[in-house]
Structures are given as structure tokens and as C-alpha cells.
């Protein structure tokens, strides 16, 4: 059975991958996540998820290496991780009462065979009308400073939404498991085998 590695420092992605019941290692990728000028969001998440997997694959020959990256797309712009509480509050205030699209790139590198797969999943979130006080309390309690879109679906973030639309809710957390299972099967690792 091929060995599996998750190229991510995210504890949320590790928790999701554990659900498949497959043994895996993980390593933090070291890449520049800066978008290129004029780079469409789909191209960005493809490039970054593949770059994350590739940076880790060098140290793991004979493995299947998973990379993932996520951005929020709103009002024609790409929004990443807020980095500080003021930016998180400002993002959530902009999202209040609106639909936001999240794109999660997924890459799988088979370092044994020298081949790879790259795709992305989208998931739309409709935010309910949020007061400034609710936004402040949420940011203070959850501290979503390292999360695209300034919220954590796996935590209190669920209280911010009116509606969720997409094929795989795991996409919002950052690792689309349905698509990942399909890629793993194609690479010769069936989670149900």
C-alpha cells in the first residue's frame, strides 16, 4: 500500500484526513503563497496546492503527497487569511448578508511514479446579517486569523451563516474528502480496501 503524507500545518486538515482511517504522516510546506498579478483564483489554488505537495514530496520518495490551499472570492477579489483581528472584523462586515465563494485546491503527487493530479472544489456560503457586536464577539472568541474568509466552519463559524451550498462540506474546512478519495483510488489507494 502506498504511504500517505499530508503537506499541511493545519490541524483541521489533519483531523479531516484521519476520518479516512488511513495511516499518514504530515509535514509543513514552506512556500510563498503570494498571488501573482492577475492570477485567477482557480489558477492560484491549483498552483499553491501543487506547490505545497511538491515542497514536501522531495523529502518523501515513494509516497502519495496531498496538498491543499483555500481562498475566499468576494466582489471580484481574492481574500486570504486575515492575519489580524481588525482585518477579520472588516472581512466579516463586508460578508454580512452576502454570498461568498470558497475555492479549495487539491493536489496529489505520486512521488513513486512521478505523476500528479490537481483540481479544485467550490463551496458557497451565504452569511446572515451580522451586527458589529456579533462580529467582534466572534473574532474575539474564535480568533480566525489564520483562516481564509475570517471564520472556522469547524467551530463557532457555523453561527455566522444563513445557508451553505456545495458538494462536500469538508471543502470549507480545507480538504475536500470526496474528491480526495477519488484521487487516492486513481493513484491505487482505496480507503475502503
Any key phrases for this structure?
28% strand; elongated; single chain
List the helices and strands and how they pair.
Layout: E1 3-7, H1 11-18, E2 24-27, H2 41-57, E3 63-74, E4 77-79, H3 85-95, E5 99-110, E6 115-127, H4 132-142, E7 161-166, H5 170-173, H6 177-186
Parallel strand pairs: 1-2, 1-3
Antiparallel strand pairs: 3-4, 3-5, 5-6, 6-7
In short:
With 193 residues, the chain is α/β, with parallel strands linked by helices. 32% of the residues lie in helices and 28% in strands.
Question: Could you please describe the fold and organization of this structure?
Answer:
- This protein has 193 residues and is an alpha/beta fold.
- Helix content is 32%, strand content 28%.
- It is built from 6 helices and 7 strands; from the N terminus they run E-H-E-H-E-E-H-E-E-H-E-H-H.
- It has helices spanning 11-18, 41-57, 85-95, 132-142, 170-173, 177-186, and strands spanning 3-7, 24-27, 63-74, 77-79, 99-110, 115-127, 161-166.
- The longest helix has 17 residues, at 41-57.
Mean pLDDT: 95
Number of strands: 7
Q: Outline the low-pLDDT stretches.
A: none
Radius of gyration: 17 Å
Class of secondary structure makeup:
alpha/beta
Which descriptor suits the 3D outline?
A: elongated
Please count the helical segments. Answer: 6
- Helix proportion of residues, in percent? 25-40%
Measured between the Cα atoms of the first and last residue, the distance is 10 Å
Main β-sheet description? 7 strands, mixed
Q: Which band does the percent of strand residues land in?
A: 25-35%
| Helix and strand run | EHEHEEHEEHEHH
Oligomer: single chain
Amino acid at each position: 500500500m502506498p504511504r500517505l503524507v499530508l503537506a499541511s500545518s493545519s490541524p483541521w486538515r489533519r483531523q479531516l484526513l484521519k476520518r479516512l482511517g488511513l495511516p499518514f504522516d504530515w509535514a509543513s510546506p514552506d512556500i510563498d503563497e503570494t498571488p501573482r498579478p492577475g492570477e485567477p483564483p482557480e489558477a492560484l489554488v491549483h498552483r499553491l496546492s501543487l506547490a505545497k505537495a511538491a515542497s514536501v514530496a522531495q523529502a518523501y520518495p515513494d509516497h502519495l503527497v496531498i496538498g491543499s490551499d483555500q481562498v475566499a472570492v468576494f466582489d471580484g477579489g481574492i481574500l486570504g487569511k486575515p492575519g489580524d483581528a481588525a482585518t477579520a472584523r472588516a472581512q466579516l462586515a463586508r460578508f454580512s448578508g452576502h454570498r461568498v465563494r470558497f475555492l479549495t485546491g487539491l493536489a496529489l503527487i505520486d512521488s513513486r511514479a512521478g505523476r500528479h493530479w490537481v483540481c479544485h472544489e467550490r463551496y458557497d456560503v451565504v452569511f446572515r446579517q451580522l451586527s458589529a457586536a456579533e462580529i467582534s464577539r466572534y473574532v474575539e472568541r474564535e480568533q480566525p486569523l489564520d483562516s481564509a474568509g475570517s471564520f472556522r466552519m469547524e467551530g463557532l463559524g457555523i453561527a455566522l451563516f444563513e445557508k451553505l451550498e456545495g458538494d462536500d462540506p469538508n471543502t470549507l474546512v480545507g480538504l475536500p474528502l470526496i474528491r480526495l478519495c477519488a484521487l487516492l483510488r486513481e493513484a491505487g489507494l482505496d480507503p475502503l480496501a
